[in-house]
Design a protein that fits this description.
The complex is a heterodimer of chains A (68) and B (259). In chain A, 10% of the residues lie in helices and 38% in strands. Chain A is mainly beta and 68 residues long. In chain A, strands 2-1-5-3-4 form a five-stranded mixed sheet, with no helix packed on it. The longest helix of chain B has 21 residues. Classes of the chains: A mainly beta (68), B alpha/beta (259). Strand 5 of chain A pairs antiparallel with strand 4 of chain B.
């Protein structure tokens, strides 16, 4: 079981290992333009598949929205 | 050709617009098309996880290939938050460097916190960002932001979303006269005449959102703003006649009168 905090919400994933790419897929965000920060550091898109998440990681997943 | 030059790129349009507060994305797109803007601001926010994963995104209506995106730091109250937001924006937009920095000081007035703005600007310039910076109309701060290396300085005309127009044209004029980088009015413009006045003062451009999105007919107002910015720019370049209390020289000949 992996516990993550995603955009301020606590989430649990019933898996032994989870990469950022797998998380994106699990959340139904594949193909969306987004940026991810893990424990305060940006995870480059090219490293999603190689970045394993750890229990307790805090993630921010952001996109562009209307603004002035 | 009279172009707006920012961070090494020339733009035909001197009107920059925000993409917030519209009824829907169709209206956003129509208004932006009517404005003729090439640079559009976007905010960086948490992605909807779960229930709204399939909803349309702004980027589908305003493809980044068609516009120059200007990600902003709206809602940030510290230099750290602003820098963090723009690092995410750079990753989101594939290494994009042009950004709008704004650090607010107060949630009621949305007045900028210039101390935090200066701090954030230093960090961002060091990290290679091209920083267009929102600030107060303090000429000293505007100059300091330029000296830090910001590629454009964007003083407020009046408070964000207030539509109060150009409240201190004299300060704006001092900022413009002292600046070696483009000065754009950001915030406060309420209607077309405000935009024309700002441009007549010698501003290089105007950034606005609420003046268009908050109009009864946003698409028509976007068209009005486009014309006002163009008209104000031409009037500035033309050089206005001096103001005088009265003129002893009528426009019609004083000779050849009948009788």
């Amino acid at each position: 079981m992996i516990h993550l905090t995603i955009n301020g919400n606590s989430r649990q994933f019933d898996v032994a290992t989870l990469t950022v790419a797998e998380l994106v897929q699990t959340l139904g965000l594949t193909g969306k333009r987004l940026a991810i920060e893990r424990n305060g550091d940006i995870v480059p898109r090219g490293l999603f598949a190689d970045t394993a998440l750890n229990d307790g990681d805090k993630l921010e997943i952001v996109g562009a929205v209307g603004g002035g | 050709m009279d172009t707006l030059n920012i961070a090494g790129k020339a733009y035909q349009s001197r009107l920059l617009v925000g993409t917030g507060k519209y009824k829907d994305f169709t209206e956003t797109r129509a208004a932006i098309d009517a404005s003729g803007a090439e640079i559009i601001t976007v905010a960086i926010r948490r992605t909807n996880i779960g229930q709204h994963a399939g909803e349309p995104s702004l980027l589908e209506y305003l493809p980044p290939e068609e516009f120059t995106y200007l990600p902003n730091t709206a809602g940030c109250y510290s230099a750290d938050d602003a820098v963090r937001t723009l690092r995410l924006a750079r990753e989101l937009l594939d290494g994009h460097r042009l950004v709008k920095l704004e650090v607010l000081g107060d949630p009621t007035t949305l007045y900028p916190n210039v101390v935090e703005t200066l701090k954030a600007a230093e960090t961002l310039v060091k990290e290679g960002f091209d920083v267009m910076v929102y600030t107060s109309d303090d000429p000293i701060i505007a100059k300091q932001l330029e000296e830090i290396g910001c590629c454009a300085v964007m003083p407020l005309a009046s408070l964000i979303g207030s539509g109060m127009g150009i409240l201190n044209p004299w300060n704006l004029q001092i900022i413009i006269e002292n600046a070696k980088v483009p000065v754009l009015v950001d915030a406060g413009v309420g209607t077309a005449s405000d935009a024309a006045i700002a441009m007549e003062l010698g501003c290089q451009g105007i950034l606005m959102n609420t003046a268009i999105a908050g109009a009864h007919n946003p698409v028509l107002m976007a068209s009005a703003m486009k014309k006002a910015v163009e008209a104000g720019r031409e009037a500035y370049l033309a050089g206005r006649m001096p103001k005088k209390l009265y003129s002893a020289t009528p426009s019609s000949p004083t000779t050849g009168m009948i009788g």
